[in-house]
Write a structure and sequence with these properties.
Layout: H1 2-7, E1 13-16, H2 24-37, E2 40-43, H3 47-61, H4 68-89, E3 94-95, H5 99-103, E4 117-118, H6 125-135, H7 144-148, H8 168-180, H9 185-190, H10 195-207
Parallel strand pairs: 1-2, 3-4
Helix pairs in contact: 3-4
Length: 211
C-alpha cells in the first residue's frame, strides 16, 4: 500500500510465492490486496524448487529431523526469486521486515531479509496493525482477514509467530523500553514485566545483533 501510494500503481510489481504450507486464505488475501491497489502481480509457486533442494540435500540431512533449516530454505528460495527480478529489471526490492521481528532475529538471512530498503523497518509489529487499520478507515483496502488472523510465517503446518515469540503486544512494550528508552533488565522487571520473559526477550535481542 505504501509503495503504491508513494510511487504509483504502475511502478509496483509483486510476487506471490506460495509453498505447500501456504493457506488458501493467505493467497486469496494477497491477490485481493494487489487487485484493490491495481498493481501488477504474478504467482510463482515454490514447492517444486523446495522439493529439488530437499532431494539434493538428503545425502547430508538423511539422519536429521526437519527443523528451522527447512523453513529457511523456503524463505531463501523466495529471496532468490525476488532478487532475480530486481537484477534483471533494475527494480529496487522492498524488504518487509519490521522492527519487532528484526530485533529478535525473526527473519532469515539471504531470505526475507533481502531488499534495498526496509519500508517498515523502523516501526514495531503492533504499529503495523495500527497503520493497516488506519489505511482501512474509509474502505477496505487491506483485506481484513490479513489484519485479524494470527500472524504466521507459514513455513510449517499450523505455524504461528506466537509459537516462537511472545505475543506482539507484550513483546513490543519490552522492546520499546529496552531499545528506545535503554531500560535494563532490573528496570523492566520493576515495571512489572515477568522476569523470565524479560530475560528471554533480551537474550533474543542480544544474540541476534549480527542480523
Amino acid at each position: 500500500v505504501l509503495a503504491q501510494r508513494a510511487l504509483g500503481k504502475e511502478n509496483v510489481h509483486v510476487l506471490l510465492m506460495p509453498s505447500q504450507y501456504s493457506s488458501d486464505h493467505s493467497i486469496n488475501d494477497a491477490k485481493a490486496l494487489a487487485e484493490n491497489l491495481g498493481i501488477k502481480y504474478d504467482v510463482v509457486a515454490i514447492k517444486e524448487m523446495y522439493d529439488s533442494f530437499d532431494k539434493n540435500l538428503q545425502p547430508f540431512f538423511k539422519e536429521t529431523a526437519p527443523d528451522v533449516t527447512e523453513e529457511n530454505i523456503q524463505a531463501r528460495i523466495r529471496g532468490v526469486l525476488l532478487m532475480a527480478l530486481s537484477n534483471k529489471f533494475k527494480y529496487v526490492l522492498l524488504n518487509t521486515s519490521n522492527k519487532s521481528e528484526v530485533a529478535v532475529g525473526y527473519g532469515t538471512l539471504y531470505g526475507d531479509m533481502c531488499g534495498g530498503i526496509a519500508v517498515l523497518g523502523d516501526i514495531y509489529k503492533t504499529q503495523i496493525y495500527e497503520l493497516a487499520r488506519y489505511i482501512n478507515k474509509d474502505s477496505e483496502v487491506i483485506p481484513v482477514n490479513s489484519i485479524s488472523k494470527p500472524p504466521s510465517a507459514e513455513l510449517r503446518p499450523g505455524q504461528k509467530d506466537s509459537d516462537s515469540l511472545p505475543e506482539y503486544d507484550v513483546l513490543d512494550k519490552i522492546l520499546y523500553e529496552y531499545i528506545e528508552l535503554r531500560k535494563g533488565p532490573k528496570e523492566l522487571m520493576n515495571m512489572g514485566f515477568d522476569a523470565a520473559l524479560v530475560a528471554r526477550v533480551l537474550r533474543l535481542v542480544n544474540i541476534n545483533e549480527y542480523k
